[in-house]
Amino acid sequence: MSDQSSEKTHTFTLEVSNKMGVHARPAAMIVRIASSFSGEVWVTKKDGERVNSKSIMGIMMLAAARGSELTFECSTQDASDLEKQMTDLFSSKFQDE
User: Does the global pTM surpass 0.70?
Assistant: First the structure.
């Protein structure tokens, strides 16, 4: 248990800005990035629903429409790299537009 308490949790929030929101393809892109990092990566929608971001079904169940804010929490050593990759993905509007 001491290992968990010594790991610092990194949190960042991103806004969904593409027209269709997080549908199947963007969800798969989020999962692919999250799964490339060790440790847990959670995502919470502003309404309080929290899911494992390595689960495509979890991400899809958030039903994150345009304008939704998603807060990511991770305890991986590469947290800043995870944040950069997710920020780039959200900035690209999931290459939807």
Answer: yes
Any idea how long the chain is?
A: 97
Q: In Å, how far are 11, 40, 76, 77 from 2, measured between CA atoms?
A: 21, 16, 15, 16
Alpha-carbon distance of 27 to 13, in angstroms, equals 16
Active site residues: 23
* List of E strands, the chain: 10-15, 41-45, 50-52, 69-74
Number of domains in the chain: 1
Pair of tokens at residue 18 = 């593409």
Question: What's the domain range around 55?
Answer: 2-95
pLDDT tens readout for residues 34-82: 999 999 999 999 988 999 999 999 999 999 999 999 999 998 889 999 9
